[in-house]
Amino acid sequence: MINLSDIVKAYDVRGTVPDQLNTEVARALGAAFVVVTGATRLAAAHDMRTSGPELLAAFAEGATSQGADVVNVGLASTDLLYFASGHLGLPGAMFTASHNPARYNGIKLCRAGAVPIGRESGLVDVRVTAQGFLDNGLPAPVADPGSVSEQHLLAEYARYLRRLVDLSGIRPLKVAVDAGNGMGGYTVPAVLGDGELSALPLEIVPLYFELDGSFPNHEANPLEPANLVDLQRKVVEVGADIGLAFDGDADRCFVVDGAGNAVSPSAVTALVAVRELAKAPGSAVIHNLITSKAVPEIIAEHGGRPVRTRVGHSYIKAEMATTDAVFGGEHSAHYYFRDFWRADTGMLAAMHMLAALGEQDGTLTELTAEYERYAASGEINSTVDDQASRVVAVRRRFADRTSATDALDGLTITLQDGSWLNVRASNTEPLLRLNVEASTPAAMAAIRDEALAVIRS
């Protein structure tokens, strides 16, 4: 018997197909989504994974059985589904497992206007209701069941993004893009190329644009340095001004400079924050607690109000709503925009980077230098059975050098020299995640290695 607690995570549904996630489960979740939210109409879409269309169809069967009409948006990136939710004013369901391997699929759910549904905002109720349907059978169809229609929104999505960031007047740029066989291969030609709209002054050099949910070239997870190597090589090989790498569902974007060096998501967050603050002076800007401490420094220097939050899109979107923040960024390259229904879109962040680069004559390396102030470890995962005891051990190890601690998300320790480290447990796997930042690479490496020795002992 399937236990939905195994696949309903903090922010979404994610599991292996078909043993954990199949049409029966999707049908139950579709019915439960309508019962819990009261939706009378919703949008649904899927990425390039082969199981997506049949899972979406089963979800739609469950939803229509309970009286809701379903708008099938078809093939989409996650941020295209968020666009559909905002543009049409409908709740949404996106079938994707993001960067996970090919055997996985999942569902990201939102209310109308791309408002997230997570553990603390309705996902538990959906899980419990769907589990009841799996255990006891689906409720009888309502007297007036819903229907399924199709509406493709790629051109409208591209047009909307181009209105937010106008690239038509920038200097010509050569842009290498690694779509990782994911949805960037579908959305990049529409937004940055001439697939749907007029051409921009961009020469796109494509890598792995073929949609293939088996990910034959590399995992569609640019957060792992090994998955950026092909793009870094291509940027140098063709003399590109910038490189962009998208994850599987293309809601995240990673940036490589013309020398082939990765630009940290913290630097991207800071640069985009400055641009958004120029349009909305004095606004709040969200950053999660793993981003560089340069981010709140730069936000404040440009008249903004930095707001620190825990990791995770549902928390950040909620904080953006509370503070009316103009922008938010995470260390994982999720970027959130008030102008995009507070949802995350890697494409819009990429367009800001292209605009910033194309509006001046310098290189991307020169442009981002002022935003890279400290040395960071990046996120390092360790498989740990007893996560709580290892966190306690890390706290004890650094106790004599600690100036402050907090437990907003895991444990953050600020050391007396201004360096900091964070250890936090994964929401989905038996992992401890470590992030370290210090003033120099040597200082960072020393703290990183000391903390890892404790975690892995």
Keywords:
single chain; 457 residues; alpha/beta; Alpha-D-Glucose-1,6-Bisphosphate, Chain A, domain 3; 4 domains; seven-stranded mixed beta sheet; six-stranded antiparallel beta sheet; 14 helices; 36% helix; 23% strand; metal-binding; Phosphomannomutase/phosphoglucomutase; magnesium
> What fraction, in percent, of the residue positions are helical?
25-40%
Distance between the first and last residues' Cα: 37 Å
Shape-level CATH architecture of the largest domain: 3-Layer(aba) Sandwich
Q: Please state the structural category.
A: alpha/beta
Name the average pLDDT: 96
Biggest β-sheet description: 7 strands, mixed
CATH superfamily of the largest domain: Alpha-D-Glucose-1,6-Bisphosphate, subunit A, domain 3
Number of helices: 14
Proportion of residues in extended strands: 15-25%
Radius of gyration: 22 Å
The tally of beta strands, per DSSP, is: 23
Total separate domains:
4
Task: Summarize the entry for a quick read.
Residues 7-120, 156-260, 269-374 form the Alpha-D-phosphohexomutase alpha/beta/alpha domain. It comes from Jatrophihabitans lederbergiae. This protein has 457 residues and is of the alpha/beta class.
Structure description:
This protein is of the alpha/beta class. It folds into 4 domains: 149 residues, Alpha-D-Glucose-1,6-Bisphosphate, subunit A, domain 3 (Alpha-D-Glucose-1,6-Bisphosphate, Chain A, domain 3, 3-Layer(aba) Sandwich), CATH 3.40.120; 104 residues, Alpha-D-Glucose-1,6-Bisphosphate, subunit A, domain 3 (Alpha-D-Glucose-1,6-Bisphosphate, Chain A, domain 3); 107 residues, Alpha-D-Glucose-1,6-Bisphosphate, Chain A, domain 3, CATH 3.40.120.10; 81 residues, TATA-Binding Protein, CATH 3.30.310. Strands 1, 2, 3, 4, 5, 6 and 7 form a 7-stranded mixed sheet that branches. Strands 18, 19, 20, 21, 22 and 23 form a 6-stranded antiparallel sheet that branches. It has a 5-stranded mixed sheet with strand order 9-8-10-11-12, with helices on both faces. 53% of the residues are buried. The model has no long low-confidence stretch (mean pLDDT 96). It holds the Pfam family PGM_PMM_I.
